[in-house]
């Protein structure tokens, strides 16, 4: 059975290498030296930020377990992280638009470094504080950096199409290659060198500090709406008006929440799905294989987005449909494949089928990230970009908290079936988004008029 893991990992490695080295002029976008310098700087910073995040992932649960906490207490800690992201995400997003995206990125580094420091304490309250700080940092990671990039890209007068190149390369390296190396490095620190399960968090803090130094020394500041008369409530109102007045933004938010909610549910469920009878599976190696599949997806996305005639709104319908089918496989195998009642052993036939399906889903995830970033750059107004992006994360975090709280209440096929339905709905909404985008392409929304109407409106009585 070990041969299967190596064959799958090796096969994906060969395919990714062939895709990257066989790109023709049609797959590449001609850019300028100034843009390449700007892109490389952002990718270095983004990779360091993601390294700080990926290093922590494999050992969070294990660290809490070594401190003597049970499944229920660990579950509450995880819920605190997602709840914090939900409650404070929109606030820090609005502050990023108002006070500056560079400051928000620095705040991310500081918050996550402090979160890493709390891991040295076995006290539940201190660890809870760390999870809250981590939730705030996560909101900034997935909004402030992208908002800064889009604004800075446009401010420097680069071609709009070049933005997709930065997105796809950042995901390929930051969410793929860095994730694999970070997992191996965390294992080296913890097990091979024997520094213990807190050492990956110390390493993460170091990478975050390096990234923060680069941000402070090389990045300029940009804002969403820096006008002094805009308080936090007004920022929320601008974001709400933007979402309510433009169907494209509302559809984009629904699509993102449906896909990411399913993705985070998959993160919690893939391990028990592949080893329902406590089969002996190489978790770290499988995780690295998933990340390699994600790299494959981002490489495919870079080719797709390099073609001006191919619209993101079109091919993402197919991506969501494929991802819906892959998460339906656990339901199908539960009926068609006889499960063994013997504990332990190697992965079953059903597990092998799911492994291939899950790799396909991860490839869809790799296509999703740069593609959704591209659509957000097209449809979300600059004035409240970070605020709106964090608004999108509210239903996502609610969904994940509900799943975490009720993870033992439903059979696993039911959970996967629910995710499959969500992804199918995302495919339908993506189709609607394409239709609406085509009909409005010749008459874009005037966001200046939206802001002026909002400024003239009566203030809310709180």
Broad shape: globular
- What is the N-to-C succession of helices and strands? HHHHHHHHHHHHHHHHHH
How far apart are the first and last residues' alpha carbons, in Å? 63 Å
Average pLDDT rating? 86
Largest sheet: none
Content-based structural category = mainly alpha
The total count of helices amounts to: 18
- Report the helical percentage: over 70%
Total strands: 0
Radius of gyration from the alpha-carbon trace, in angstroms: 22 Å
Provide the β-strand percentage band: under 5%
Low-confidence stretches: 457-462
Short description:
The protein has 462 residues and is an all-alpha fold. It has 18 helices and no strands. Residues 457-462 have low confidence and may be disordered.
Name the features:
single chain; 462 residues; 18 helices; globular; disordered C terminus
Summarize the structure in words.
With 462 residues, the chain is mainly alpha-helical. The chain has 18 helices and no strands. The protein has helices at 2-21, 33-54, 60-66, 71-99, 101-118, 124-141, 144-155, 162-192, 199-218, 232-245, 247-274, 283-306, 312-326, 329-336, 349-379, 385-405, 412-440, 447-456. Helix 5 packs antiparallel against helix 6. Keywords: Cell membrane, Ion transport, Membrane, Transmembrane, Transmembrane helix, Transport.
């Amino acid at each position: 059975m070990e041969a299967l893991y190596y064959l799958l990992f090796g096969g994906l490695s060969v395919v990714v290498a062939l895709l990257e080295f066989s790109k023709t002029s049609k797959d590449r976008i001609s850019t300028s030296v100034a843009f390449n310098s700007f892109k490389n700087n952002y990718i270095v910073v983004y990779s360091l930020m993601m390294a700080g995040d990926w290093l922590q992932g494999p050992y969070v649960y294990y660290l809490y377990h070594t401190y003597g906490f049970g499944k229920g207490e660990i579950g509450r800690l995880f819920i605190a992280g997602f709840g914090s992201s939900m409650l404070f995400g929109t606030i820090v997003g609005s502050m990023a638009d108002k006070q500056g995206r560079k400051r928000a990125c620095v705040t991310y580094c500081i918050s996550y470094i402090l979160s890493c420091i709390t891991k040295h304490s076995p006290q539940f309250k201190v660890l809870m504080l760390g999870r809250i700080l981590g939730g705030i940092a996560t909101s900034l990671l997935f909004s402030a950096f992208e908002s800064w990039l889009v604004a800075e890209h446009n401010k420097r007068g680069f071609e709009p199409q070049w933005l997709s190149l930065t997105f796809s390369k950042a995901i390929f390296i930051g969410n793929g290659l860095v994730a694999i190396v970070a997992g191996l490095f965390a294992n080296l620190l913890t097990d091979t060198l024997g520094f213990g399960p807190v050492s990956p968090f110390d390493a993460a803090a170091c990478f975050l500090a390096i990234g923060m130094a680069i941000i402070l020394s090389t990045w300029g500041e940009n804002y969403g709406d820096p006008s002094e008369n805009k308080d936090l409530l007004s920022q929320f109102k601008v974001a709400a008006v933007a979402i309510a007045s433009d169907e494209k933004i509302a559809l984009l938010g629904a699509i993102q929440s449906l896909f990411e909610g399913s993705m985070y549910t998959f993160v919690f469920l893939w391990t028990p799905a592949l080893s329902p009878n406590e089969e002996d599976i190489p978790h770290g190696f499988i995780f690295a294989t998933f990340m390699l599949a994600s790299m494959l997806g981002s490489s495919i996305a870079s080719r797709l987005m390099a073609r001006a005639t191919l619209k993101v709104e079109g091919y993402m319908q197919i991506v969501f449909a494929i991802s819906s089918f892959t998460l339906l496989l656990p339901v199908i195998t539960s009926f068609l494949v006889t499960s063994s009642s013997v504990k332990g052993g190697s992965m079953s036939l059903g597990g092998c089928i799911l492994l291939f399906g899950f790799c396909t889903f991860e490839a869809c995830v790799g296509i999703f990230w740069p593609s959704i970033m591209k659509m957000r750059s097209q449809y979300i107004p600059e004035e409240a970009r970070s605020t709106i992006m964090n608004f999108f994360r509210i239903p996502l975090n609610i969904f994940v908290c509900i799943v975490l709280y009720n993870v033992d209440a439903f059979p696993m096929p039911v959970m996967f079936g629910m995710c499959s339905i969500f992804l199918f709905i995302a495919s339908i909404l993506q189709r609607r988004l394409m239709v609406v985008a085509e009909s409005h392409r010749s008459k874009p929304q005037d966001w200046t008029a939206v802001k002026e109407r909002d400024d003239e409106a009566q203030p809310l009585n709180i």
